[in-house]
């Protein structure tokens, strides 16, 4: 941490900062220039916030030298993490397509979708049974009953399953039925939940919060890894901006940034990012070209009848079209499709 | 709900929409104009999303007629809600000052702060013992031990207590020690937690999410009320924008809007909204003039040593200065200070 | 400027930075710590961007020590600027109400409005004749003809006049008819236009851009002052965010920040900030309590017939109500109403 | 336009709306439902704002049926516009690389860059001589002298030239030296400037404003086309959001949306969008996969010595690397590289 003092800071002010540094068990390095005095803190800085110094008398700015995340950082862990889901390997060098309905509505709907997306080239089946809904009056998902439908779908298609966990108490049971636990965007900073999935064995698909910075996103991953679960898939799903033609704004720059800052695989969700069926395929293409390791796509047998997110769900035909368009791009990018 | 069809929509497309309306147990009213056809849905629309119609063939726009929240709306409940906390009445006609440290650090720190803010004119003591922190390495709060410190502070000062609940499993125990349960900004759409505090007896201080719209904020209140707890205090605490001179952007327009759209009391948190001590007093003044029913303020015996949020915490002297400035404004606004 | 090098930066990398500092005519102060090397640049830093160093090998962060604006800063000019408009003095200690129609529509409309707002307590008449409109099909203003209407209104009421300038070529003629030149939000970074009004004698009301930071806003003022015109009124008029219940998000924290960082007076525009008539009065009240030196308000004889911005225009009766509410607040704030 | 009245709207309120519709020369279609009354306006709606109705008594919502832009819309002009720059054809089916320094610094720098990017596969040379700078103390460009340097660069390489116009008075002279006139992001709603380039013969590269919606962006293009110049290239260059790891947030969803809503070609600027050299290549790749018709890239012989935007400028070697990566993607996308 580097603490910049105001021009003409007094000795007492400098000593105040030095005192805090020592109190934190660290050492100081004071450099007095003509115009300003700069104090470096030598020692562990993670877990110490800029705020600890920002309000002290004479301090004008506080600068962090290290990233605040460690286990999730590439500095600490230079090789790419490959997340294993059974025999499948998600990460650098491969491309994984996850697909399925927004909400699981029936055994038949789920199974039919599973068969179709499997045929099209997906490796993972998605589908929500615990649904975080903005309105308490909206369809809240089938709950545990819906979980059971996954078993048959997995058995008949061999697809792995990803589904959302909404609370600490659901983590264990979802862990029994799913191969990947999803943390939704609205729960990205539900820290108790992050700790709970951090104690599970199954990999976690962590969605970026609607207004989360890349740094906060990686710190959320840090919570999970710190609790013992290193298998985190970072999912960029669009951030909230002023633009209204799309539901959210897909931030593909975040894909490039996370690939540089971290060793974790990155998956893109163009369905929630755009909210509009017509934009899902172009954004899936763009995701792969940006360097993503996978996409997660909403597909429904009859989007017009979907209980949730119909306008952004692809039909089976559109899903096939998407696969036709992205496979050659994956090849150019040197990525093998995970089956 | 009003569904606008594209120019030249076919009969089949119109029938498709009508079919969905009837399936939902509602009735249609079709109005064919020269340029466009408009279909009104008559009946219950809450719980039905625009998305249910937005993706249907021929549909160009879907328009909600009613607000999606009901119990929280002034349409449904025209009189202002007054939230009772013991003998204190929070809401229209009164002004409540809540104050205390960001984090409870010790019995002594809490008690000292409680005495000072009580003397200054506060009615409620704030302080976090379960702390939602962006980094897993940051101070996470004293937990249950900290809760116990509130008992002494309440006994000696008579102040009511508000503190944050972070998970479903903590709701009951926090409910035993606190007079008001706080839901933090990052948990505003942690729906399981909303349901949990909705089943508690104590009033809830609901903080607005960092990127939540006013509509989503009121829908979060709706979750709580729907579960049986009508005593919700809406807390505007700044939203996330591009501006970086302040930590967040305080949205006082939201105070005016919520006062119009809803019957619930509104409290403003200028400490988190600005993140800068110097701006807390002006924003507390502005909040009261905007029509807020209270403020919640971070105060610390020694902000320079605070384990959390020091730069935005007021000293005791500054807190007294704030009270001196806001009391005359409250008077002009026709509001009585709650003691 | 402070340049932080990566851990283990080589001598060559350090020398690279030092070379650039010297090339810029400044001196370096190199401080080698155990973990990192920090280089301070001593000398003039304004006009040098962080980017000049940010891309150099070995550099991890660049930190500006001084604000990038100088003439507009309180560091440089500690006393509050009072802008004189004839005998009127706008700034600290006074409160100025500017009011009038969004667009000048006719001599009669302007005159009638002028008389009413004068009676109510306004000191300045606003009204647009050159209208920057998002759509080329919208009413573009009466142009020079409209300018002439101001003469009669001023003569009959004694009000000062503020109106917008949209281009360099209009600056001189608007300067002949208006007492204050307005730069609209969409032109806040039209640098040629800033230079043009910087060469005029009349004070300038500078509106904040829709997505401008406070720093950019003050740098826009710096352009004007640097060209010779020190009389700049900073106008906060709401920024663009995700929230849609209000047209923009009024950033009153910016009022507090500009009052601290700069010596220039601050005026608030609650009409454009909220876009909703019902919210204008509460936000005018909040502005004054936040420390603003004035407000600018849209008023129309018949808002329902306004050619522009009807929904946010106050009626005469509402304007009177607003004055009744803000005058006592101004008094509490120690401010005298400018007549 | 569709005007939705509140439940229980009176006849007088309905007649008020009808009166305005007729005043505007249009016809009404009133549809009274059980719960609400809806009024359709039949006739020309472009140029009429929602605000014209939004404030009328009894009105709860106003809904536009047509896009507010016409000449720029695909509804009106279904075939893709191909912009001709000499023998080159920019638009659907082709891919154009524009490259060069942020600022023209000398004849030598420009020429050297031009030769290299030409060799690498660029078709258009970029470079600023009139530079819109946030700070008045920053390098403002070489001005007219710099314009002359383009002549030699064009002659020696055959590249077309794009450069920025900052004011109405510069439009003609820039038009003599450049093949494409650039409107910068900060001037996207400088309507006088849009009109000025609309009267020029040269094609226009229109950059999206930092916080402009796609609709406003297309309306800015509408200004230019309406003034007589149909050759507009839409340039997505990142929008301003809360995220700070990248300078702006590249909105590739906007590429897909504009391709659907409009017939105009779309160019992407990954240099300004990310502000970080390492992210330029991934975002150039993503742009092409999203369906863009070109990219505009900052390249500098020695980025470390660039007077402007060094951190985001590619070296010659990096530019070659970029071309190597995007050419195969262009091929997959069915696009021919414009030489």
Describe the structure concisely for a colleague.
The first copy, chain A, is of the alpha/beta class and 339 residues long.
Report on this structure:
4 copies of one chain form a homotetramer. Chain A is an alpha/beta fold and 339 residues long. Chain A has 2 domains: 2-63, Phospho-2-dehydro-3-deoxyheptonate aldolase, domain 1 (Alpha-Beta Plaits), CATH 3.30.70.1140; 83-337, Alpha-Beta Barrel (TIM Barrel), CATH 3.20.20.70. In chain A, 36% of the residues lie in helices and 19% in strands. Chain A has an 8-stranded parallel beta barrel, surrounded by 6 helices. The radius of gyration of chain A is 23 Å and the shape is elongated. The mean pLDDT of chain A is 94. Chains in contact: A-B, A-C, A-D, B-C, B-D, C-D.
List the keywords.
alpha/beta; 339 residues; 8-stranded parallel beta barrel
Query: What is the CATH class of the largest domain in chain A?
Result: Alpha Beta
Oligomeric state: homotetramer
Give the largest chain-chain interface (CB within 8 Å).
Answer: A-B, 51 and 51 residues
Alpha-beta classification of chain A: alpha/beta
Rg for CA atoms of chain A: 23 Å
- Round the mean pLDDT of chain A to the nearest integer and report it: 94
Strand order of the largest sheet of chain A: 7-8-9-10-11-12-13-14
N-to-C SSE string of chain A, H for helix and E for strand: EHEEHEEEEHEHEHEHEHEHEHHEHE
**Poorly predicted regions of chain A:** none
Helical percentage of chain A: 25-40%
Instruction: Write down how many β-strands of chain A occur, each being a DSSP E stretch of 2 or more residues.
Output: 15
CATH architectural type of the largest domain in chain A: Alpha-Beta Barrel
In whole angstroms, the N-to-C terminal distance of chain A is: 46 Å
Q: What is the domain tally of chain A? A: 2
């Amino acid at each position: 941490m580097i603490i910049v003092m105001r021009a003409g800071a007094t000795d007492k002010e400098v000593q105040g900062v030095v005192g805090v540094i020592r109190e934190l068990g660290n050492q100081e390095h004071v450099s007095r220039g003509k115009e300003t005095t700069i104090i470096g803190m030598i020692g562990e800085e993670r877990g110490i916030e800029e705020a600890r110094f920002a309000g002290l008398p004479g301090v004008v700015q506080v600068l962090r030298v290290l990233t605040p995340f460690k286990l999730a950082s590439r500095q600490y862990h230079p090789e790419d993490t490959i997340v294993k889901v059974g025999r499948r390997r998600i990460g650098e060098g491969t491309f994984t397509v996850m697909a399925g309905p927004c909400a699981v509505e029936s055994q038949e709907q789920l199974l039919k979708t599973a068969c179709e997306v499997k045929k099209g080239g997906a490796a993972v089946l998605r589908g929500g049974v615990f649904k975080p809904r903005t309105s308490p009056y909206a369809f809240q998902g089938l709950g545990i009953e819906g979980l059971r439908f996954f078993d048959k779908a997995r058995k008949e298609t061999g697809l792995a399953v990803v589904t959302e966990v909404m609370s600490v108490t659901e983590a264990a049971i979802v862990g029994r039925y799913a191969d990947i636990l999803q943390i939704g965007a609205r729960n990205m900073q539900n820290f108790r939940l992050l700790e709970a999935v951090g104690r599970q064995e199954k990999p976690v698909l962590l969605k970026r919060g609607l207004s989360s910075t890349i740094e906060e996103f990686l710190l959320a991953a840090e919570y999970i890894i710190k609790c013992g679960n290193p298998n985190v898939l970072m999912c960029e799903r669009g951030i909230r901006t002023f633009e209204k033609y799309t539901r959210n704004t897909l931030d593909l720059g975040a894909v490039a940034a996370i690939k540089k800052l971290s060793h974790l695989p990155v998956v893109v969700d163009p369905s929630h990012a755009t909210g509009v069926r017509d934009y899902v395929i172009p954004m899936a293409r763009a995701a792969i070209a940006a360097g993503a390791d996978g996409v997660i796509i909403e597909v429904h047998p009859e989007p017009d009848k979907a209980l949730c997110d119909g306008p952004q769900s692809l039909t089976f035909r559109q899903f096939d079209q998407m696969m036709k368009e992205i496979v050659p791009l994956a090849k150019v990018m040197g990525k093998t499709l995970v089956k």
